[in-house]
Design brief:
The chain is of the alpha+beta class. Helix content is 40%, strand content 24%. It has a single domain (23-156), classed as Transcriptional regulator MraZ domain (Chemotaxis protein chec). It has helices at 2-16, 45-48, 74-85, 92-102, 120-125, 146-154, 160-168, 173-176, and strands at residues 27-34, 40-42, 58-63, 69-73, 106-109, 115-117, 131-138, 140-145. Strands 1-7-8-4-3-5 form a six-stranded antiparallel beta sheet. It has a two-stranded antiparallel sheet with strand order 2-6.
Length: 177
């Protein structure tokens, strides 16, 4: 019996090892939402179910690319911010990137009704007024003004298949010979 206990102890040590790569969230979904007059948005139940217990109903929002906002569960934000903080900050490009990346980042907590308050400066950055879209993929939830999101989808590449091949294709050297 002692041997069995040692195996479990070893398993616990392995699971608690900080060098072990954390499990990433995998969000999925597209949700149309409205902002209430106080600037709050209700997190849809479908997304709430996808939040990991490690997030503890805490999120971080910051500026994203293409004039959207990005929500991260707090545990995911810590992983990403650690990666940015590990950059050599003696390099000017790295400092500029870190400043822009962290600019406007704010921690949010879901209230009892699963709502979060969007900071006014970030709403202005993303041109969000009343209607918005939460687009969830990978470890993030992008927050778009509905108009900007619709425009983005209307500007879809003419040949999505070619884009997919370029980005995701695994051409072997033999195929190119």
């Amino acid at each position: 019996m002692v041997e069995c206990g040692k195996k479990w102890e070893a398993l616990l040590i392995l699971r608690n090892n900080k060098s072990q790569k954390p499990i990433m969230s995998h969000f999925l979904g597209e949700y149309e939402c409205k902002i209430d007059p106080k600037g709050r948005v209700m997190l849809p139940a479908g997304l709430k179910k996808q939040l990991s217990p490690e997030a503890q109903d805490r999120l971080v929002i910051n500026r994203g690319f293409e004039k959207c906002l990005v929500l991260y569960p707090l545990n995911e934000w810590k992983i990403i911010s650690d990666e940015v903080n590990s950059l050599n900050l003696y390099s000017k490009k790295n400092r500029e990137f870190a400043r822009y990346f962290f600019r406007g980042a704010s921690e949010l907590t879901l209230d009892a009704n699963n709502r979060f308050l969007l900071p006014k400066n970030l709403l202005e950055y993303a041109s969000i007024e009343k209607d918005l879209v939460l687009f969830a993929y990978s470890n993030r939830i992008e927050v778009w003004s509905k108009a900007s999101y619709d425009s983005l989808l209307n500007d879809e590449p003419e040949d999505f298949a070619s884009l997919a091949e370029e980005v995701m294709g695994k051409n072997s050297k033999k195929e190119n010979d």
